[in-house]
Every structure is written in structure tokens, then in C-alpha cells.
Amino acid sequence: MNLFESIRIAWLGIRGNKIRSLLTILGVIIGVAAVISLISIGQGVTKKVSSQIESLGTNLIVVTGMRNQGGVITRDDMKLFDKSQLISKVAPSIFKTGVNVKWGNSTLGVTVEGTNENYMDVRNFHVQQGRFITIEDVEKRKRVAIVGQDVVTELFAGQSPIGESITIDGQRYSIVGVMEPKGEVMGQDLDHYIFIPVSSAERLFGSTKLNTMYVQTASSDQSQAAISEIASIFEGKFGKPDLVKITSQDQLLGTMDSMSKTLTMMLGAIAGISLLVGGIGIMNIMLVSVTERTREIGIRKAIGAKRRDILSQFLIESIILSISGGIIGIIIGIIVSKVVSSSLGWVTIVSFWSILLSFSFSVLVGIFFGIYPALKASKLDPIVALRHE
């Protein structure tokens, strides 16, 4: 018996028990769909977070004063980097969340961040209208403000606020600029920010201690050397190495990549268990099928069917079941990914390798769990099989 004849007979056997066949491959369908949908969601989340990290700035290093030390970084520390050939720009940051901002009869809670003229370049921010903070603003402690898109929408009903005066914690500031939409980055809604000169923020908040320094390196390949230099500078000043935390953009991306791989492996393993359960289901049903068709096997052997013919028939039947489940599972997995993306607004990425992986695994499941029933069928004694009722 040739291969095509074995496939035809196997297909007829499956068609003769449609409901049973569908229930048999249900585990494979669920497993494949789970692999594709979970991995696509995991990859989508990874890509979104990675893009957010990249949008934090260009060649960025973040220097944070440890809170348990009461804050140790000030604007004067920026002068420590003046002679460095590795560092191109430094932007200070002192911020406060939940600050009440008033315009007319409207009040809005926002995050107010004080910084300098380097902030836009270091953080990859852009002004949509007006201008950003200047050197003169910082030197003269001008009460000027640049507002985010959410502030424009919620406080000014989408109208241009340039030239308007707002009250920030009881102090009046003139709006000179509007930022381009930035969205949420690392859990922070940057469109809900108001930026003011760092010198004005120090006066407003009653503190000269910075929360953060954003440091831009001259080039991306100098990041590690710059980190070492910054650590050495602060250790030389404070005599302790643990008063500041130094994190680079590359380190964040590396951590994210590692977490992504771990997450993908975990999700794939969870979904793979469903496939294994589906394979066990196929084996059980195939064993039942062998028992039910014992007489048929005996007749086929009696008229000349060889052991390998019986083996190939039942093995091909198992493979067809798993392939059918794989195809249906792929379709459902893609649909689930699209539904999740559109309904929840999550980014999902259905990659070719996840489809190939899940489909290949489903075929292997069919082969692995179909071998035992097929061998059992092929070893049946034709005389004993013909006596089976």
C-alpha cells in the first residue's frame, strides 16, 4: 500500500467519526491557540516597553540620589562633569506629583518638573507650540511654564494656552510652550506634566535637592565608560559609592530583553502543557479506535495487508488529527491576538516563528502519541482479530 492510499484510508476513518475527531483535537487546538496568542501578547508588551525605554532619551544615563540618604544631588554637581569628554549634556530634574494647577475656575492635579534647556535633547522631547526653557529662564528664575497635551486638553479644552497665566501651588506662571504628545512611558503619563525652570522649581518646592540627573553621553558606545566616570566622580565627592544610583539606557534594554525571553519561555511552556494534554487525548482515542476496529484490522491482514500498512494507517490518522488541530489552533490564536489588541488596546505581534513553532510541535505531538496505538494495531494477530466481536 502506497502513502496516498494510507492517507485516504486514514481520512475516511476520521470522517466516519467527526464528533469524536473534533473532541480528540480540542486539546491540540487550545494548546496551539494558547502558544500563538500568549507569545504574541508577550512580544507585543516587550516591544512596547522597549520602545518606551528608547524614547526616554538618546545615549541616556540616569543618576538618581538615593532617597534613604535624604537626597544628595544638587545643581552644583553638574559642574563636576564640565571637563568630561564622555558627557555631552546634563539635564537636572526636580519634580513633585499631585501639584494643583489652576486656570480660571478649573483645577487640575499634575506633575511639575523643574529642569533646564538641555532637557529636550537629552530626553528626546519636542515642543509643539511656543518654546522650551532657556538658559535665561534658569538664570533669572523666570516663572514660565511649558505644558503637556493632557493639561491643554483638560484645563484649556484643547485651545492654545500660549500666553495664558496659570497658578501652580499659589504662584503664577506664564505658559510659553506646549509639548508634543509623548504618552505613557514606564508608568508615567508625560502628557500630564508641566515643565518649569529648575531654579523656579527649587523655590517652589523649597528644596535644592534634585531627584535625578539625566546625562547624555557623547556616543552610545561610551555608555559604560561614562557610568564608571560618573560613579568615580560621586564617590570622590561623597566618599561613598552607594549614595547615587546610576542606570544606563542600555542596561534597561538589556534587563528588558532578559525579562522578555524569560516571559516568552514561561508562556510557551504553559501553552506547551496544553499541547501535551492534547497529545495524550489523541493517544487515548486512537487506542479506543484500535480496539473498536480490531476486526477491521484482522480482515485487512487476512487479505494481504502488511504490518507496515496498518502501522502507517493509524500513525497517519494521528498525524492528520494533530495537523488539523494545529491549523485550527493557528487561526483561533491569530483571531484571539487581534481581538485582544483591538478591545484592550494592547500591542500584539504574531510572529512567523511562533506559528512555525506551535505547528511543528503539534505535528510532533501527533507522531509521538500516535506511535504506540499504531504499533499496537500493527502487532494484532489476524486470527485473534477476526474472532473479536
UniProtKB/TrEMBL annotation:
Residues 269-382 form the ABC3 transporter permease C-terminal domain. It comes from Tepidibacillus fermentans. Pfam families: FtsX, MacB_PCD. The chain crosses the membrane at residues 21-42, 265-290, 310-336, 348-372. PANTHER family: ABC TRANSPORTER PERMEASE YTRF (PTHR30572:SF4), MEMBRANE COMPONENT OF TRANSPORTER-RELATED (PTHR30572). It comes from the Bacteria. It is found in: Cell membrane. Its main location: membrane. Belongs to the ABC-4 integral membrane protein family. InterPro entries: ABC3_permease_C, MacB_PCD, Macrolide_Exporter_MacB. This is Putative ABC transport system permease protein. It is a multi-pass membrane protein. Keywords: Cell membrane, Membrane, Transmembrane, Transmembrane helix. GO terms for cellular component: plasma membrane. GO terms for molecular function: transmembrane transporter activity.
